[in-house]
Specification:
Elements lengths: L42 H7 L15 H10 L20 H7 L5 E3 L18 E3 L13 H18 L3 H18 L16 H15 L4
Parallel strand pairs: 1-2
Helix pairs in contact: 4-5
């Protein structure tokens, strides 16, 4: 890039700006105001959209949350590393780790979504990470041998069940429930694992983290 003033960002290419990535799990495009929904469900987003670039059509990497976020955070297809990798693989490069490597301070704050937690590797690349999920009662300890055994069983089941349409459909449903159980090995339901912290709790902690950073990028 040259110093041509007609080129966007040419004069500020060396500056480091703050980057804020906000995701809303299961938000339907046909239920937001700025995309044509008649009810006032998203007044703030509607106002923000008036001065923003809006992409009216997008394709997700996968429908479930645990398939979508590897694409968002690690820029890869959800099954590229196999079905036994749910979330971010150990040492896998992510958006957060790339920014961290370039000198940015990184913080992640998750509203109690059990699929986007440190249990699935999403804390990688963040200087500060809080999923508001396991606070107060910790995570269960698992041996690597247990994980390897579970993976082997899943692979064998997938091969057998894939022979007919109805057994494949049954396996997909069971596998979804298996993914849910991985969020917490105490076999609690996913609903009981969603504490849904209040918005002010998330904002207060994020603002506190930003204040502590001072002028650092």
């Amino acid at each position: 890039m040259t110093d041509n003033p007609k080129l966007p960002f040419a004069s500020t290419r060396m500056k480091k700006f703050s980057l804020v990535l906000i995701s809303v799990d299961c938000l339907r495009a046909d239920h937001v105001g700025f995309l044509g929904y008649s009810r006032p469900t998203t007044p703030f987003l509607d106002q923000l959209a008036q001065t923003s670039i809006v992409f009216p059509c997008a394709i997700v990497a996968g429908a479930p949350t645990y398939f979508s976020f590897p694409g968002i955070m690690a820029s890869r297809y959800p099954l590229a590393l196999g079905r036994d990798i749910i979330g971010i693989a150990p040492q896998e490069p992510t958006l957060a780790s790339a920014l961290q490597a370039q000198g940015w301070s990184t913080g992640g704050f998750v509203a109690g979504n059990p699929y986007v937690t440190s249990r699935f590797g999403y804390e990688q690349g963040f200087d500060s990470f809080n999923d508001f999920l396991f606070n107060g009662h910790g995570e269960a300890n698992l041996s690597r041998s247990t994980d390897r055994w579970s993976t082997h069983v899943n692979v064998q089941l997938e091969k057998v069940c894939g022979r007919t349409r109805w057994t494949k459909a049954a396996y997909e449903e069971l596998y979804f429930q298996y993914c849910q159980s991985l969020a917490d090995r105490r076999w609690e339901t996913m609903d009981s694992l969603r504490p849904y912290p209040a918005a002010n709790v998330l904002v207060d902690q994020a603002c506190s983290w930003l204040r502590n950073l001072g002028n650092r990028p």
